[in-house]
Amino acid sequence: MLGKKLVTAQKRGETRALCLGLGMVACSMMMYFFIGITIVPFYTKSVWTTETMCKVLKANIMDKVLWPNSEGSEDEDIFPYPCLQVWVNLTASGQEVMLYQTEDTLERNPKCSYVPDKVENSKEVKARVEIIASNFKKYQTFPCYYDPGGTQTNVILSRLYPPKGLLFAFLWPTLMFTGGCLIIVLVKISQYFSVLSAWQ
Predict the structure, then answer these.
(1) Distances from the Cα of 173 to the Cαs of 9, 26, 62, 78, in angstroms?
(2) Which of 1, 107, 108, 139 is such that its CA lies 20 to 30 A from the CA of 118?
(3) Per-residue pLDDT tens digits for 99-114
(4) DSSP label at residue 110
(5) CB neighbours of residue 33 within 10 Å
(6) 70 sits in which H/E element
(7) How far is Cα 191 from Cα 91, in angstroms, rounded to an integer?
């Protein structure tokens, strides 16, 4: 009687462990799919792949501009913000080009090097833009990214999804997939030895 209870408990434990392993594998596959349709396209689309050094030539705060693509919009959160334009000397080619914060900044507003977040108010934006401009004037030389193919003549300060960031994004689903497969293999090995011992 006790033996039957132990066998039943063992089968239940194996079933739960097997379900856990299969669930981890399924979740990791969903994470792979999500990363593949969100982060990977942005990474492959970016042409600013080569790092070089940039030297600041001028950093000017121009007249205020409206929120990008906000003409004719009735959104109450839209506000004008100072347009910071940073021009740098590209060490790789010696050209005078405009610097943008990320790839997304160029798409949102090609006239400005920095586009504030929508949640910020006008006073915070003005203070932040002034701090960024003073930092560029203080630190004249810094690493930046440019397009070695020449399709984009401008440069960016940082990539949205650098290679390290992409590897880090794939790290967690890989660990989950490995753990799920390991649980499944251990359950199968346990079942095999249980059947073998029962047969003997």
Answers:
(1) 31, 10, 45, 38
(2) 139
(3) 999 988 888 888 889 8
(4) T
(5) 11
(6) none
(7) 64
Give the Cα-Cα-Cα angle 162, 168, 171 (nearest 5 degrees): 150
Residue type, 73: S
Tokens of 10: 């063992």
Cα 56-133-42 angle, rounded to 5 deg: 75
CB of 72 within 8 A of CB of 129? no
Tell me: the pLDDT tens digits for 127-173?
888 889 888 888 888 999 998 887 888 999 998 888 888 888 899 99
3-state secondary structure of 35: helix
> From CA 33, how far away is CA 191, in angstroms rounded?
32
Residue 65, strand partner residues: 81
- List the structure tokens of 120: 């910020």
